[in-house]
Specification:
about 775 residues, five-stranded mixed sheet, 12 helices, flat, binds 2-acetamido-2-deoxy-beta-D-glucopyranose
Length: about 775
Amino acid sequence: MYPFLVLFILVVISSICKGQHANLCNVIPKDLYIEMGSDIEVLCQTSCASGKIFWTLNSRPIDESLSNVINSSLTVLSLRTFTHHNATLQCHSANTQQILGGTTIRTYTKPSKLSCFFHYKNQHVDVVPHLFTCKWEHQMNSSLKIHYTVLYASLLRPSYTEICSSYVTTCTSKDIDLSDKVHFFGNASVIVRAKATAWEAYSNPYEFDHYDILQMIRPEVTVTAFPDHLLVEWTRSPSTRTCHCQVKYGKAVSDRTPENVQSTTLDPSQKGEYTIQSVESCTHYNILVRCALDKAPWSDWSRETTVLTKLNKSDVKLHLWRKVAEPKKNAIRNVHIMWTEIPSTCQGTFTYTIQQTPYKNYMTGANSTGSLCYSSPCDIDVNQDAHRINLTVFHGEILLTEDSVYVPATVESLLKVTDLQTSNLKGVILVSWKAPLQPVSGYMIDWTHNGNQYYWKESKYTNTRLLDLLDKKPYNITVTPLFGDKTGHGTQALQICSRVGNPGNVTIISVEAKDKSAILSWSTRSQEECSGAVINYTVFYGTQKGPTLNVTVDYTKQDLCLKDLDPDTQYSVYVKATALTGTSKSSERLFKTKRYDPRLSMALGVGGSIIIFLVLSLGLCCAIQWKKFREKPVPNPGHSSVALWSSPSYQKGMCHFQPFSNPPKSIYDQVYTVEPQRAPTSALATDCNGNQASDQAEEHTDPVIHLSLDAEDEKPVELVETQHLCCPGESTSLLSSGNSSFTPYRSQGSVETPAKQCKCVPVKQLEKTAPVTVYVTLDMFEQGQSK
Ligand SMILES: *[C@@H]1O[C@H](CO)[C@@H](O)[C@H](O)[C@H]1NC(C)=O
Ligand SMILES: *[C@@H]1O[C@H](CO)[C@@H](O)[C@H](O)[C@H]1NC(C)=O
Ligand SMILES: *[C@@H]1O[C@H](CO)[C@@H](O)[C@H](O)[C@H]1NC(C)=O
Ligand SMILES: *[C@@H]1O[C@H](CO)[C@@H](O)[C@H](O)[C@H]1NC(C)=O
Ligand SMILES: *[C@@H]1O[C@H](CO)[C@@H](O)[C@H](O)[C@H]1NC(C)=O
Ligand SMILES: *[C@@H]1O[C@H](CO)[C@@H](O)[C@H](O)[C@H]1NC(C)=O
Ligand SMILES: *[C@@H]1O[C@H](CO)[C@@H](O)[C@H](O)[C@H]1NC(C)=O
């Protein structure tokens, strides 16, 4: 009975299981990873539900036509070119809206655009390449860590072998020449595998011929300069294959890579060489070369080679020109000769010779005078006749080239251009003119900003643009027509600035403030020659609080009366000059208006001054009257008879009479006539001169020098003492002031002279005579002077 029981239980369990299974609902497969853009089929088991079902992808219903009902328990959904990165797919019962099951679908992409090349570790030896580098692209929207492996298969080893792996989309295998996995024979194929934890993807295979992906080594270049070309040569491996190369060259300009690229194809046995034609003379050129096998990637550019080109005679353009000055008195004219020199980069020595030939002898070549000019410009003199000026250039001993230019005679009727017009635009001067009536071969335009340095150029047309001018400089421009081997007369344009700047600096010269007005004056000074002409001035003024007012005056005025100001208020003012080309401002100036009308205070001042003057005058009158009154009691010796003075010694001694009748020298002589007798009275002599006069007197025999030294040595104080001794009536202040300017040569018409003489009077008196009392008054001197 037990076996039956066991069987029964098994049947029940199996029937239960079967029943459950029958009622199961689900979506399979779960957690899908598919390749982006691939097709996919998903099943929905619908045993547990009845009726129709529908699908949603990221909660959006899917078109019913994609769903295919197999039988009551199974529905298949087919999705084509699935492109969602991450999607949730659900299966719903249409009757109950119940979710029967779901799955997530994520996509990955496979690596694409795989390319590889062989290259050399050592750029000098190209036997077997050491390096094999592959690159590919792989679009990943997550930061998933992916392990890439490069697999290689070749004719000799057809199964894919790992040769390199990395976590980035490039991978270089080193020392492949040592590995046995790579064989330079026939075609090979590479694929890259991307492996994440949940999926693995392979790129499409990349098939190649080894030589099609072999990058050549960088060529070694040598360049040789010839007068008319450059020969570029480079190394290439003795290969059995054709290669093509590129030569890149250009003038050596710092921070700029050469722009010209020329290609050349070399046959298997051909040497690497290329000729660069039409290079400029005496110019540094940079040259680079790279090469590649037929389909292979380019090698690296060779190292840059710099070469200096040789001078090609046909490149020498002297552009000889001349400026003829106005004739001087003797009809000699200075001719300023200029030409374009051979660039200093050219190797060798170049000698320039100028020859001037009167034009009438030019054809025969006679009568030329030569002069050596080391450089341009060069000045020579010619007379009033027409001349031809020749310039010859020697390169060492060899005649390189020559040029000539015509200097017309002083009186020669020649062609001229007319209606010469100039204008400036952003630092460029445009020049235009009208052609003369006769046909001309061209025009020479020359211009200068300082009269020393000239620039010149030829034009075929009746207008030209002068470029590279100095900013804000006035230019003198002359246009001369050329015809045949002669030149016409030049026509000079009005001086024109390359650019006109702001007006000159405005400076406020003065502000005269009154109580309710102020007179402002200013000036404009321009440091630059090309400052803009002022059209009008605007004066801005105002108090600190108040609004800023403005007054505009035209360029003719440089002063202005500011009216309606408040008294006793501080104002600030500045002046702005406006020109067509800009403006310039003066610095701000502060001024304060007066409290009262200055005319009132001036009237008050004048009145006060008059009163003070009157008072003072009155006082002075009184003082004079008082003095006169005081002086009366003193007897005036001038009015008395002086019999005593008839003695000759006294007449000599009376210095105050002498200077007015005799030359002063005689007075000084007198001083020294008494010298031998002075020894016993040296103490008194000291008193007179204010210092040790006796010793000095013996040393100096020239009386003039002696006195001049004395005068210098004397100090005002000493002199005052001395003079007290001599002239008790004198005012000391008068004497001391007179002393400072005393010289022995000054003799007459001054009060100090008698004072000086006076000091000697007592010496003689003491020596020879008994003391005599003498009264001297100022009036006496006055009388003496008037005699
Ligand atoms: C439904 O079809 C599937 C596949 O064809 C089959 O395995 C399954 O037994 C069928 N179910 C029913 C109930 O017929
Ligand atoms: C070698 O590969 C190239 C493509 O790189 C192909 O054109 C060529 O036919 C292949 N040669 C052979 C022998 O398969
Ligand atoms: C100078 O260059 C020109 C071309 O630019 C060429 O024809 C000529 O031969 C060159 N002269 C010399 C001396 O090489
Ligand atoms: C120049 O030539 C003239 C005649 O053509 C001759 O008289 C004169 O002497 C010559 N002068 C010189 C310096 O040779
Ligand atoms: C330009 O020409 C004027 C007018 O002829 C002349 O006065 C001035 O000196 C010239 N300036 C220079 C720099 O040559
Ligand atoms: C001052 O000159 C400028 C420039 O020509 C002009 O725009 C402006 O109107 C003038 N101002 C007055 C007040 O004339
Ligand atoms: C000058 O003042 C007037 C008003 O008086 C004002 O309209 C004008 O903008 C001022 N001009 C300037 C340049 O400030």
